[in-house]
Amino acid sequence: MTTTLPAAPHHEAPPAPDLPSGGTVRTAATEVLAVMGRRLRRLRRAPGRAIGVVLNPLVSMVLLGYLFRDAVTLPAGGSYVEYVFAGGAVQVGLACVGPTAVSLAMDFQGGLVDRFRSLPISRVAVPLGHTCADLLVGLVGLAVTAGTGLALGWRSHTGVLPTLAGFALVAAFVYVMLWLGVLLALTLRSIETISVVAPFIVVVLPFLSSAFLSPRSMPGAIRPLAEWNPVSAVIAACRELWGNPATTSPGFVGDHPLLVVAVTLSVLLTSCCAVSLRRFRTAGR
C-alpha cells in the first residue's frame, strides 16, 4: 500500500506595496534609480523626445519675443522680451507632458510594465523613476531657455533669492506636468492618441493664458478662460518674482498669484499621483 503525502501548501508571494515602508526606503530608492537609469539611457539613444522639450519654448521666445518685440505693446509698458520669457519658461513644463506619456505608454505596449509588476518591487518605482529622469531633462531645457532669454535681453530685477525662487517655481511646475503625463499615459494607453493630445497641451494652453498676450486684449468669451488658466497663475507668479512686466487681471487670481499657484500645484500633484498609482496597480487586469 502506498501512502500519498499531502502536497506542501503553496504560498503566493505577497504583492509589492504601493508605497515603501520605513524599512524599505533604501530598497525603493534603488529601484527608482534603476528605472531612472534605464529611462536616461533610452533618451541618450533616442534624443528626439528630449529635443522637443527645449525646442518648443525656444521657438516661442525667438518668434514672438524677438521678432515681434517692437510690434507688440504691453498695456502697462515694458520690454516684451521680458514679458514673454516667463511664458517660454513655463512652456518647458508643458513640453515635458508628451515625452513622459509616450515613454510610459511604450513600456505598457512592450510588456515591460507587466514584467515590472511581476517583481517584488514598489509600485511607485516605475512612475517615480520616469518622472525623476524626465525632471532632469526638463531642468536642462529650463537652463537652455534661461540662457537664450539672457541672450535675447531678458533680465531679472529683484535680486538673487527671488530670481532663484522663480526658477524653483518653474521646476515645481515641470514636475507636476510630468505626473500629468503619467496620468495621460495610464488613461489613454495609445501612443497615437497621446501624440494628438500632447501638441494641444504645449501649443494651445499657452495661447489661452497670459504667456504671450494680455488676457485683456483677448475676445470676451476667451478672456475668463485665460485669466483662470493655472498656467496664467504660474506665469504671473514668475513675473512677480522676477520683476518683469505683467498684465494683472482684476480679481483673486490677479491679486494673489503665489497663493493660487501653491494651491493649484498641490491639488494637481496630489490628485495626479493618487489616480496614477491606482490605475498603474490595476491596469491590464
From TrEMBL:
Residues 1-23 are annotated as: Disordered. Residues 48-280 form the ABC transmembrane type-2 domain. Keywords: Antibiotic resistance, Cell membrane, Membrane, Transmembrane, Transmembrane helix, Transport. Its main location: membrane. It is found in: Cell membrane; Membrane. GO terms for biological process: response to antibiotic. The chain crosses the membrane at residues 46-68, 80-105, 126-152, 164-186, 193-213, 258-277. GO terms for cellular component: ATP-binding cassette (ABC) transporter complex. GO terms for molecular function: ABC-type transporter activity. It holds the Pfam family ABC2_membrane. InterPro entries: ABC2_TM, ABC2_TM_bact-type, ABC_2_transport, Nod_factor_ABC_transporter. It is a multi-pass membrane protein. Belongs to the ABC-2 integral membrane protein family. This is Transport permease protein.
